[in-house]
# Entry
Amino acid sequence: MLVKRYMQTKVVMVGPDERANAALYMMKKKGIRHLLVTDNSKLRGIVTDRDFRLMRPSPATSLSIYEVHYLLDKLKVKEIMTKKVIAVTPETTIAEASRLLLNRRIGALPVLKDEKVVGIITETDMIRALIDLEEAQ
# Structure
């Protein structure tokens, strides 16, 4: 079983200079938890729902809600994204991709072919692969 069978090919991507609030809105609107950050079709990073949770200020902050929104609106994706991205190819086995997710404690892997983004594979895709394997027996 290979990644190319289970990866999502309709990948949502943003540029590194995109406003963080706009990226978060895009994620909520599309119901996704991972956004690939690209620049001229080259993978630069990944931003996740966890990154957004970590960037939020403490509830104990003395800032007003308006000040918080103002500051968050100035933040760019490149300031919160993970830059050292672990990626796989379409020919990577599901077992190896699963090991990467598990051992690195991450939720998604960009899929690259010739350094170009061709998809993304997530924990949810791995569960689909497991179900298919179980049903095939």
Q: What stands out?
A: The chain has one domain: 3-136. The chain has a mean pLDDT of 90.
